[in-house]
Write a structure and sequence with these properties.
Length: 507
C-alpha cells in the first residue's frame, strides 16, 4: 500500500505505478524503497480475469542494469507516447513516529523510463526542487513524421515542513509554493541533452494561482489542471496567516503560443486536493440523458476538501469539458481552442464551430459570446460610403452627403446627379465654342501665311534680276592669252559675249 505515487499507462496495456510513500500504521512513513518501487499491471483482455487476484496481475519492474532515480513520493509522472514515461521532482523525507526525520531533500531531477529496454535515463535538473506540482506533456510531429515531446512543469511546493498532528503522528506540510512554468524539449534519443527553460505565456493570458497537488491530465496537445491547494499566505499582502484552502477551478494550458485559460467549470463539483483524474469521451446521455453523442470528459476520483475535518471524497465526478464560450475547437483533445473570428460568436462551452452573425451585422472583436454582440454592420455593408449601425439585428446606413440614405449607400443624391449633368453640358458647350474660335483663328493664320509666301517669292525674283545685272559667272568668259604676271596675280586677254576683255585673276 502507498500514497503520493504516480500511475502511467505505457505500451497501451501496462499501468506502471512508480514511487509513493508507505507507513507502518504507527505514524512512521518513508518512500517505498524495495522491489515494489516500480510495479506494472497488465490490462490486456487475457489478464482482466486475474484482476481480482493482485498477486497474479502485478509485476515488479527492476528498472534495468544502469542508474536509476532516487526513491521519492509526491513527484509527477507522464507518458511519452506509448513506450516511455518521464518522472520529475518529488521528496524523499523519512520520519519516525516521534517526528525524527532525515535530511529532507526536495528533488528537481528528471528521469525517463523506457519500456523497450527497461532502463532509466537521466535528464536535466530543474533550477530548484519541487513536489506536488503539475507535469504536462505535449506532442507534435517532426518533419520526418516522428513524434516530438515537450514536458511542462507548473507550480508545486519547494520546501517541506514536518509537523506533528495531535501529538502522535507526523505530517509533511508543503511550503514555498511556486507559480513558475518550465519547459523541456525532450529528445528521446539523447535524454541528457537540453535544459529546463522558463516559459513566458501570452500577455492576454492569465495564469492560474500557484498551487500544489492538483489533478493533472494530458490530452496530447493540452495540459488540464483541476483543483489543488492554494497557499493563501503566499498571496496576501498584509502577511496575515490564513489556512490553505482547496480549489475547484479547471485550467487548460495549450501551446503555440503558450496560453492559459480557465474553463467554465467552477462550482460544478466539490473542491478537491490530491484527487486523481483521467480524460476521455463519455456518452452524453449519461450526463444529460437526452443526447447520444460523446463529449470530452474529465473524470475525477478521491482527494479531500482540506477543511478542518480533512474529509476524504469517495465519489467519482464526471466533468464535461470544452472550449469556453467565445471560442471553438473541432477536436478538444487534439486541437487548440481558437477565439471566434470577427463576425461570429459561440454562446456555450464545447462549441466545435462558431455561429455567424445574421447578415449584415458583425461583432466588434474576436471571442464574442452572444448574438447580442452582433451590434455593428459588416465592414462593406454601406459600400464604404457611410457609417453603419445595427439595432436588433437590423442594419441602417448613415451615408456620406454625396450618397442617398438608402439600404447600402450605393445611389448618389438627386441634386448631385443634376449638378453633374449640368456640369457636363456646360463643359460640352464651352468646348464647342473654343473649337469654333480656334478654327477661325487657324483659317486667318493660313491666309496670312499665303500672303507672306507670295512676298517672299517676289523678293527672290528681284534678287535674281539684280544678280544678273552685275554678276559675271566664270563660265561665261573665254581666256585667250596671258598678258602679264605680278606678285598678287596675273592679267589675261579674254572674250565675254563676243567682246574682248581684260581678265585679272587674283592668286
Amino acid at each position: 500500500p502507498r500514497s503520493f505515487h504516480t500511475a502511467v499507462l505505457v505500451q497501451g496495456y501496462r499501468m506502471v505505478v512508480y514511487g509513493g510513500r508507505t507507513t507502518d500504521g504507527s505514524g512512521m512513513f518513508a518512500p517505498v524503497d524495495d522491489n515494489t518501487t516500480m510495479v506494472a499491471l497488465d490490462l490486456r483482455q487475457d489478464a482482466q480475469q486475474a484482476l481480482g487476484d493482485t498477486s497474479v496481475a502485478w509485476t515488479a519492474l527492476a528498472g534495468g542494469s544502469g542508474a536509476s532515480p532516487p526513491v521519492r513520493y509526491a513527484h509527477a509522472a507522464a507518458a511519452l507516447g506509448d513506450a516511455a514515461m518521464v518522472v520529475v521532482g518529488g521528496i524523499n523525507t523519512r520520519c519516525s513516529r516521534t517526528c525524527v526525520c532525515n535530511d529532507t531533500a526536495v528533488l528537481g531531477d528528471a528521469w525517463v523510463y523506457s519500456a523497450a529496454d527497461g532502463g532509466w535515463y537521466a535528464g536535466p535538473v530543474l533550477p530548484r526542487g519541487v513536489f506536488g506540482h503539475a507535469l504536462g506533456v505535449t506532442r507534435r510531429a517532426s518533419s520526418s513524421g516522428d513524434s516530438l515531446y515537450t514536458a511542462y512543469v507548473f507550480s508545486g511546493a519547494t520546501t517541506v515542513n514536518i509537523v506533528a498532528f495531535q501529538g502522535y503522528t507526523c505530517g509533511v506540510q508543503p511550503g514555498g509554493v511556486a507559480g513558475t512554468l518550465w519547459r523541456w524539449e525532450v529528445d528521446v534519443d539523447t535524454i541528457s541533452r537540453g535544459a529546463w527553460v522558463e516559459v513566458t505565456v501570452s500577455a492576454a493570458s492569465t495564469a492560474p494561482s500557484p498551487r500544489y497537488f492538483p489533478a493533472v491530465v494530458n490530452t496530447g496537445t493540452k495540459m488540464l489542471l483541476y483543483g489543488g491547494m492554494l497557499d493563501v499566505t503566499a498571496v496576501l499582502s498584509d502577511n496575515s496567516t490564513v489556512e490553505p484552502r482547496a480549489l475547484n477551478s479547471t485550467w487548460m494550458f495549450q501551446t503555440d503560443p503558450p496560453e492559459w485559460q480557465e474553463l467554465n467549470t467552477s462550482g460544478l463539483i466539490p473542491h478537491r486536493v490530491g484527487a486523481s483524474a483521467v480524460f476521455g469521451r463519455v456518452p452524453l446521455q449519461r450526463l444529460l440523458r437526452n443526447r447520444s453523442d460523446d463529449v470530452p470528459t474529465l473524470m475525477l476520483f478521491g482527494g479531500h476538501d482540506f477543511k478542518r475535518t480533512i474529509a476524504q471524497i469517495p465519489t467519482v465526478e464526471m466533468l464535461p469539458l470544452g472550449c469556453n464560450p467565445g471560442s471553438q475547437s473541432k477536436n478538444f483533445a487534439d486541437d487548440r481552442c481558437l477565439r471566434c473570428p470577427v463576425g461570429a460568436y459561440s454562446s456555450s462551452s464545447g462549441a466545435t464551430t462558431c455561429t455567424l452573425c445574421t447578415t449584415p451585422t458583425s461583432t466588434q472583436h474576436e471571442g464574442s459570446i452572444s448574438s447580442t454582440d452582433c451590434i455593428i454592420c459588416a465592414a462593406s455593408y454601406c459600400s464604404h460610403h457611410g457609417v453603419c449601425t445595427a439595432e436588433n439585428g437590423i442594419a441602417k446606413c448613415k451615408c456620406h452627403w454625396l450618397f442617398d440614405d438608402g439600404a447600402t449607400c450605393k445611389g448618389v443624391q438627386a441634386f448631385v446627379m443634376c449638378g453633374v449633368v449640368a456640369a457636363v453640358l456646360l463643359s460640352f458647350v464651352a468646348m464647342v465654342l473654343i473649337f469654333k474660335r480656334m478654327r477661325k483663328r487657324l483659317a486667318s493664320f493660313r491666309a496670312q501665311r499665303s500672303e507672306y509666301q507670295q512676298l517672299l517669292d517676289a523678293r527672290d525674283e528681284e534678287l535674281t534680276d539684280l544678280k544678273r545685272a552685275w554678276l559675271i559667272y566664270p563660265s561665261e568668259i573665254s581666256i585667250e592669252r596671258k598678258l602679264a604676271e605680278g606678285t598678287y596675280g596675273e592679267v589675261s586677254v579674254g572674250v565675254y559675249q563676243n567682246f574682248p576683255v581684260a581678265v585679272k585673276m587674283i592668286r
